[in-house]
Amino acid sequence: MADTFYDRLAEEYERMTDEPARLRNDVPFLLEEIRQIGGVEVLDIGCGTGGHARALAAEGLHVLGIDTSSAMIDKARSGPRVEGLRFEQCGLTEIASRASGRFDAAICLGNTLPHLVTEETSLAKISRQIAPLLRRNGLFIGQIVNVIWVEAAGVRLQPVRSWTDAGKETLITRHYINTGGSTILMLVSRMIRRPDETIWRAETFHQHLQKIMPIEVERAFEAGPWTNYRSYGGWTKEALLESSPSVVFVTSRR
Fold it and tell me: CA geometry: angle at 6 spanning 116 and 113, to 5°?
């Protein structure tokens, strides 16, 4: 299950994803879009350890970060306190049942959307669950890995991350692997060597994610309760190409 997968990675998640670099890239885009509509109340769906939520709250926004992983939420709550910032362990269905029209904007970043989609729950259904959370003309900003980019190579290695704390060495690799079917395999390998050890100890985690093509995202978030869909190949609003590693998109609730 996704919860277990991320529970096991929560402690290293910020370093694994190079969170400082992510925030430098992502937050200016998010702030520009949210401020253009006068937004204040923001929902971060799949907030992880809370980096984006905390950065937006530090800029004066009121942010609720939600995640189904208890370890991720515990890690998020252990960070520096910021006025207007809250974290809650819950899923999209739970928050949708009690927060109708509450938010000016919702964000769902770092390839969280494919974790929400299952054989029983389509992307279109997810989009219809998100829409009622927003006020009229409220924004939804999403990011997913570009499946076309993964399929072109078959295997895509994310930047390798390594660090040393008190002599303990950690090395983490992440791959996206095209299975040839309806899913992408996300594979994470963690290697650890302590100061008194001569060999590395290794463990591997994996998660199958439903493939979501860019055109499927556009169809799900342009129709019905959505309008004014825009997509980019990155956070500087470059054109979305087949060679773009990720898809960043913005849409508005009708």
Answer: 20
Name residue 210's amino acid: Q
Cα–Cα distance for residue pair 1/212, rounded to 1 Å = 19
Instruction: Show the beta-strand stretches assigned E in 35-167.
Output: 41-45, 62-67, 85-89, 103-108, 134-145, 155-157, 161-165
Contact 231, 216 (CB under 8 A): no
Ranges assigned E (strand) in 70-218: 85-89, 103-108, 134-145, 155-157, 161-165, 168-178, 183-193, 201-210
Is 0.90 topped by the overall pTM? yes
Cβ(131)–Cβ(124) under 8 Å? no
- Residues 50, 76: Cα–Cα separation, whole Å: 5
Q: What is the pLDDT of residues 78-101, one digit of tens each?
A: 999 999 999 999 999 899 888 888
- Burial of residue 242 (CB within 10 Å: 0-12, 13-18, 19+) is exposed
Backbone angles phi, psi at 9, to 5 degrees: -110, 0
Residue with tokens 């060999």: 199
- Dihedral of CA 125/127/129/135: which sign? negative
